[in-house]
Amino acid sequence: MLSDNSIIREKLLKKNRVTSKVALFLLVLLFLFVLLGSRVFILVKSGELGVIWSFFSGVKKDVILSEGINLVSPLNEVFIYDIRFKSVDKTYTFQTNEGLDITLQVNIRTRPDIRALPELHQSVGENYFEIIVVPQIEAVVRRVVGKYSIEEIYRSSKGFNENLTVASIEAIESRYVLIDRVLIKSISIPDSVKKAIESKLALEQESQSYRFKLEIAAKEAQRQIIEAQGVNDSQKIIGQSLSNELLRWHGIVATKDLSKSPNAKTVIYGAGRDGLPLIMNDKQ
Q1: For residue 275, what is the DSSP state?
Q2: Domain hosting residue 52, numbered range
Q3: CA distances (Å), 101 to each of 96, 136, 152, 175, 213, in order?
Q4: Alpha-carbon torsion 139, 140, 146, 152, what sign?
Q5: Helix H or strand E segment including 191
Q6: In what order do the strands lie in the sheet with 101-112?
Q7: With 70 as the cut, is the pLDDT of residue 273 above it?
């Protein structure tokens, strides 16, 4: 029979073995957590979305990881995309339809289409800006510049910019990327061409000012002619409507009004020309 000390010793050994197994199990779990934690718990920051590549089925087109902590299989791989607008300046030098060089500094503002983020990742990848946006915008700028003359671009930069933006959107909209704007920040042309355009613009402004003055003078002359014609017509109408009887009637009415005046006067009826009353001031 075992002594009491032997029994106690054996129980302690069993307890230590159990404790060791538990500690080993916890260590294994901790190791797995450290090793796989970054693959199982995926943090998606603000302004980002995640695309999942499955070990068994490839890119999951029906799943997009949103902001926050996401739990995924350690066999999967997650690709994080910044979905904020990205603004980049590019400088291009191309020839106009006249064969003259023009340099444009263009600001490109774009972002991935979040509705088609898995398709973008599958067809292009994370370097979509360098692979799609940059060469496509370059091709669009070259094509649009080739349709204009330097003078047209210089004089109508707003319209040219609008056409450039529309053409860029049409060229990239099917590539899972959204173009917010293509803004021309500066236009550089040869100094000699610039001076010639500015001189032409100055002459056109002077010509427009001169034509405006001529139009004003012509309108004023027309106004005076119309006014003179109106006066002439009015005099003819009045002259045709006057008669001796009408003049006598107005003379009598005027005489009656004067007779009511407190000033002293002498009125001789029928003494005036054409039988009209003759009015004399008594003070004379």
Answers
A1: G
A2: 4-81
A3: 7, 20, 14, 30, 39
A4: negative
A5: helix 191-241
A6: 86-95, 101-112, 177-188
A7: no
Question: End-to-end alpha-carbon separation of the chain, Å?
Answer: 175
67 shares a domain with 21: yes
Write down which residue in 62, 81, 100 finishes a domain. 81
Query: In the predicted model, is pLDDT for residue 19 greater than 90?
Result: no
Per-residue b/e over 26-43, b at no fewer than 16 CB within 10 Å?
eeeeeeeeeeeeeeeebe
Tell me the C-alpha distance between 160 and 154, whole Å: 9
For residue range 140-172, list pLDDT tens digits in order. 999 998 888 877 887 777 888 888 888 998 888
Q: What is the pLDDT of residues 23-79, one digit of tens each?
A: 766 766 666 566 565 677 888 999 999 999 988 889 999 899 999 988 888 888 999
Q: Let me know if residue 51 belongs to a domain.
A: yes
**Among candidates 116, 127, 123, 113, which has minimal Cα distance to 61?**
116
Domain assignment present for residue 72? The answer is yes
